[in-house]
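Design job #97: recover the sequence.
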């Protein structure tokens, strides 16, 4: 992240949700910076703009659309199954708190630079509880405790599109802390870059960093992610890439396949694993 500035990748993802082929995020235009707002507003009005942006994005719009649909569904299921609170980690400009209106306490954890800007633009009605955390330096467990998160109530955790921007040690440490605060029945949806899914030549890493100000860092093999999640007390129920994700937002795996190096795992804290 560029110091003092909100996340560039969070803006990219929010724009994609505003331009998603079938269902568009109605909050995206309000949340994104003013320099890209006209594009999202035009996409809201015009199918032609959406289709042009979709093709120009090289699959990113479709990838985000499929990822969003899959996570929304997993979150609804988690709450229906008894998760009494939601925590979105690295929430960026995600509007789930308003879009899904799940009726349970909703926390958004993010880097203070991104969160500050979001809180200025987002509606106050239906707003989540904002918790400012730098995963690399702050204990998320302590910040959540201070914000009123209840570790005795099952939590639905969402960690979407964030782990790849963090060093491995921050991912491991944060997962262990989520384990500490996860009552039995808690669920975790986490996306990660597959170790062998994306060719990350030094030039690709450098280009990404120059464009978005964020380095691409942690990557895992699915077996490694499974072991990490098990270490934090979660059992994996699903792990797949864009070819396995839902279609509700109109995204298409054929267009999304460029990014199939990102995987999504859904895991549950079983009763036997409770500490
Ligand atoms: C690609 S965006 C994803 C945002 C959101 N989850 C979504 O899907 O729309 C990455 C997010 O990770 C957050 N992030 C990156 N590094 C972070 C750090 N060290 N601590 C806390 N948040 C961080 C950024 O602020 C940003 O919101």
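Job complete. Output follows.
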């Amino acid at each position: 992240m560029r110091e003092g500035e909100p996340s560039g990748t969070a803006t990219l993802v929010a724009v994609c949700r505003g331009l998603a082929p079938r269902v568009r995020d109605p909050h995206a235009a309000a949340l994104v910076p003013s320099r890209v707002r006209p594009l999202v507003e035009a996409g809201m009005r015009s199918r032609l703009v959406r289709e042009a942006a979709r093709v120009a994005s090289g699959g990113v719009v479709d990838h985000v659309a499929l990822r969003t649909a899959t996570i929304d569904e997993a979150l609804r299921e988690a709450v229906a199954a008894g998760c009494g609170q939601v925590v979105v980690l690295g929430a960026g400009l995600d509007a789930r708190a308003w879009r899904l209106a799940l009726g349970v306490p909703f926390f958004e954890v993010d880097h203070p630079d991104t969160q500050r800007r979001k809180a200025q633009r987002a509606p106050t009605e239906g707003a989540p509880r904002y918790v400012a955390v730098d995963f690399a330096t702050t204990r998320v467990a302590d910040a959540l405790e201070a914000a009123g998160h209840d570790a005795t109530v099952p939590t639905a955790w969402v960690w979407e599109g964030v782990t790849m921007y963090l060093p491995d040690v921050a991912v491991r440490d944060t997962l262990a802390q989520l384990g500490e605060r996860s009552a039995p029945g808690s669920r975790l949806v986490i996306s990660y870059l597959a170790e062998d899914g994306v060719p990350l030549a030094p030039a690709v890493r450098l280009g990404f960093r120059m464009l978005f100000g964020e380095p691409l860092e942690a990557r895992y093999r699915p077996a490694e992610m499974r072991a990490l999640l098990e270490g934090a007390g979660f059992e994996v129920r699903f792990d797949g890439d864009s070819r396995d994700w839902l279609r509700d937002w109109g995204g298409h795996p054929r267009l999304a396949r460029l990014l199939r190096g990102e995987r999504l795992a859904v895991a549950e804290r079983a009763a036997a694993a409770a500490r």
